[in-house]
Inverse folding.
C-alpha cells in the first residue's frame, strides 16, 4: 500500500504540473518556483506534513517536497536559535539535497557530449 500511495500522490502532483504546462502560458521555471512556494505554504498551514506522512516519497521527492523541507528547517531553527534560524534553517535542512544536485549535475555535464544548435 505504501508504494501505491506514493505513486498516486506523486502522480497527482506531476499531473498538476503537466496541466499547468499544457493549459497556461507559464514558463517551466515559473511552474517550478510555484511548486516550491506551494510546498512552503502548505507546510506553513500544517497540511503538507500529513501528506508527507501519508504518501512518503510520493510527497517528499517532487519540488513541493523541497519547499516542505525548507519550511520545516526554518521552523526547527527558529525554535532552537531564534530569528537567526530564518536565514540558516532552510539551507541547513536541504543541504544534502542541494549538494547532491550540484554533484550529479556536474557529473552529468562531464559525461554528456554537447551538440551545436544549428
Amino acid at each position: 500500500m505504501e508504494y501505491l500511495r506514493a505513486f498516486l500522490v506523486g502522480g497527482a502532483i506531476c499531473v498538476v504540473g503537466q496541466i499547468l504546462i499544457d493549459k497556461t502560458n507559464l514558463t517551466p521555471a515559473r511552474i517550478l518556483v510555484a511548486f516550491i512556494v506551494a510546498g512552503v505554504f502548505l507546510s506553513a498551514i500544517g497540511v503538507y506534513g500529513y501528506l508527507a506522512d501519508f504518501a512518503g516519497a510520493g510527497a517528499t521527492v517532487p519540488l513541493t517536497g523541497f519547499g516542505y523541507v525548507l519550511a520545516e528547517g526554518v521552523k526547527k531553527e527558529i525554535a532552537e536559535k531564534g530569528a537567526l534560524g530564518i536565514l540558516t534553517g532552510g539551507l541547513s535542512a536541504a543541504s544534502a539535497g542541494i549538494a547532491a544536485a550540484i554533484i550529479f549535475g556536474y557529473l552529468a555535464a562531464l559525461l554528456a557530449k554537447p551538440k551545436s544548435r544549428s
Summary: The chain has one domain: 2-111.
